[in-house]
Amino acid sequence: MNKIQESLKNAKKPIVITGHEIISFGLEKTVTQFISKTKLPITTLNFGKSSVDETLPSFLGIYNGKLSEPNLKEFVESADFILMLGVKLTDSSTGAFTHHLNENKMISLNINEGKIFNERIQNFDFESLISSLLDLSGIEYKGKYIDKKQEDFVPSNALLSQDRLWQAVENLTQSNETIVAEQGTSFFGASSIFLKPKSHFIGQPLWGSIGYTFPAALGSQIADKESRHLLFIGDGSLQLTVQELGLAIREKINPICFIINNDGYTVEREIHGPNQSYNDIPMWNYSKLPESFGATEDRVVSKIVRTENEFVSVMKEAQADPNRMYRIELILAKEDAPKVLKKMGKLFAEQNKS
Questions:
Q1: Rounded CA gap, 44 and 42, in Å?
Q2: What tens digit of pLDDT does each residue of 190-239 get?
Q3: What is the rounded CA–CA span in Å between residue 88 and residue 94?
Q4: Which residue of 127, 134, 138, 242 has the fewest C-beta atoms within 10 A of its own C-beta?
Q5: Closest CA to 87 of 43, 148, 29, 54
């Protein structure tokens, strides 16, 4: 801990990076208190999103290697001291390993080991060490932050697109909601938005297990009934685990489920080519699914959305109706994807060739 305090005091351009282990051990409030006290600049990987309150002035956004916003990338990679807490550097959270983080200027702490300027350490209690950050004294960052890219969303009658969808979600989400994003267009779109206070984020960028988020959202909603869950899942992923809809109806839980109907595995089209037949899926009548599993309209509401105005209207309706589950089908173009995913797809495609 002395090394951390000394390094933070001496640094002119420090950065704190937090990861998923902070969430796994329930240390988000501790990290938020530490950053509120010290005003240190902080970023997270997408595999660690919601590990700190994203409304803090010093929260810079999501760092993702080469795929980061240019000003964020430059700020993080030019730091003269990096404090990394509970971070795992994976391919889809580092822009296909395009991160440039100088380990000679880094103290990194994980649940089973750590590194102090590239020297490995073990046999410490991760939770206690993170909690002891609150005891550090004499540290207050007085430097500048970066301008954050946040835009107001003004809807129109235009057809809904990926980029406009995530702008709308960022504007319309509320405090104390849990965003669950399937590993595909949903994850790469949702991980880039700024969350409201007391919000949580669930995704699966480590193994990229498609179909994971539907049952995960249901289990999490059962465990935390005070936080309304908003699930964003692609049509292909939903078809793998859709049977869990029966459980949701039985348990009378009321998440808002957005089904992104873009006619197949768009994330795979970005990596393996848009015309591969194995990325095609059968087209289902998604609005009829609740009825097929025994739900009535007083329990589950089904909607189909095609335009920006429709999306805003339906999302506000669902948020104001916490006593019913909503199943909202979003009709999006087959090859439409968030910009960051298009860039990621090119990086992964190049890796696959080598």
A1: 7
A2: 999 999 999 999 998 888 888 999 999 999 999 999 999 999 999 999 99
A3: 10
A4: 138
A5: 43
User: Is the distance from CB of 120 to CB of 113 less than 8 angstroms?
Assistant: yes
Distance CA(15)–CA(100), nearest Å, equals 13
Residue 43 near residue 72 (C-beta atoms within 8 A): yes
Alpha-carbon distance values, 246 to 49, 214, 220, 258 (Å): 30, 12, 16, 17
Residues 11 and 19: their CA atoms lie apart, in Å, by 22
Output the six-digit token pair for 249: 């109806």
Strand partners, 120: 115
Q: CB atoms < 10 A from the CB of 139, how many?
A: 18
E strand or H helix at 18: strand 14-18
DSSP symbol at 196: P
Which element (helix H / strand E) includes 314? helix 308-319
Burial of 171 (0-12, 13-18, 19+ CB in 10 A): middle
Joined together, the tokens standing for residue 233 give 């899942």
Distance CA 100, CA 90 (A): 13
How many whole angstroms separate alpha carbon 73 and alpha carbon 38? 22
Instruction: Single out the residue of 266, 209, 258 nearest to residue 236, CA to CA.
Output: 266
Q: What is the CA radius of gyration of the chain?
A: 21
- In this predicted model, what pLDDT tens digit does every residue of 76-128 receive, in sequence order? 999 999 999 999 999 989 998 999 999 999 999 999 899 999 999 998 999 99
The two three-digit tokens of residue 123, written as one number: 């046999």
Residues paired with residue 351 on neighbouring β-strands, in sequence order: none
